[in-house]
Hints:
By secondary structure, the protein is an alpha/beta fold. It has a single domain (11-254), classed as Rossmann fold. The chain has 8 helices and 7 strands. It has a 7-stranded parallel β-sheet with strand order 3-2-1-4-5-6-7, sandwiched between helices. Helix 1 (20-31) runs parallel beside helix 2 (43-55) and helix 4 runs parallel beside helix 5. The radius of gyration is 18 Å and the shape is globular. The structure holds nicotinamide-adenine-dinucleotide. The site of nicotinamide-adenine-dinucleotide (NAD) has 29 residues, from helix 1.
Amino acid sequence: MTQTIDLSGRAALVTGAGSGIGRKTAHVLADAGASIACTDVNLGTAEETAAAIKDAGGEAIAIAHDVVEEAQWANAVNATTEAFGNLRIMVNNAGIELVKTIDQISTDDFRRVMDINVLGVFLGIQACADAIHNSGGGSIINLSSVAGLIGAPRQAAYCASKGAVRLMTKATALELAGLGKQVRVNSVHPGIIETPMMDDLIQGVPEEEREARIAQMHARHPIGRLGQPLDIANAILFLASDMSDFMTGSEVVVDGGLTAN
Length: 261
Ligand SMILES: NC(=O)c1ccc[n+]([C@@H]2O[C@H](COP(=O)([O-])OP(=O)(O)OC[C@H]3O[C@@H](n4cnc5c(N)ncnc54)[C@H](O)[C@@H]3O)[C@@H](O)[C@H]2O)c1
């Protein structure tokens, strides 16, 4: 028996949908039949994602949306339900990396990482939980990282933010389930994925050392390669679908074995 994931009739809001994992996730959810609200602080890139989905025969809108701005969350949720009549899936994907030593990280740097990566996710859950429940139930997927499971030098702020996302996911999953809300909340923990964010990891590395640094990154993944956005989008698709109906408060690690040893 062939089993396929069918999300038709369901709307999904994906933050940071203008690049990398968010863009691929928007496409994969749309391919499964979902209507997509592509949101990004950079509207032009969200519009490109939405246009490509529509060109492929799917349904999508683009919304200018800074995840740190509470009022913009209300606007994004309203625009989604107005366009598609429901909100069943929300992917808290927008995030930033910061690769600096403890001495280099300013208070402003630290606050910015926590604002976008942690407050942004919290505001998303706060803005979407009731809308998802009232639409018939669904799934919130929060992008954490392997950096939310293990430490990494020069990433104190980023690791702090992704660790916070991991436990905020569990706390909100328990609270919503306890309230009888039909909203599951899970986190995804990617290894190193080839997106524009990966450039942050090699920023400041002298040109002649870059190849060796990238080889080191490959070697950290026992499976022998870096991750691709599709590897993460497929895990998100599963968490968005009813196939994961018994999962809430879980952490799904998609890291080629990086954290297994
Ligand atoms: N690439 C990796 O190796 C990796 C590994 C683990 C986790 N992650 C996480 O996956 C998520 C996506 O990462 P990516 O690699 O696709 O990054 P990316 O840099 O390719 O894309 C991030 C997107 O988020 C948007 N964004 C940034 N700040 C925003 C804000 N304030 N409001 C709304 N949108 C904003 C950007 O415009 C961009 O479109 C992030 O949360 C990241 O921390 C990435």
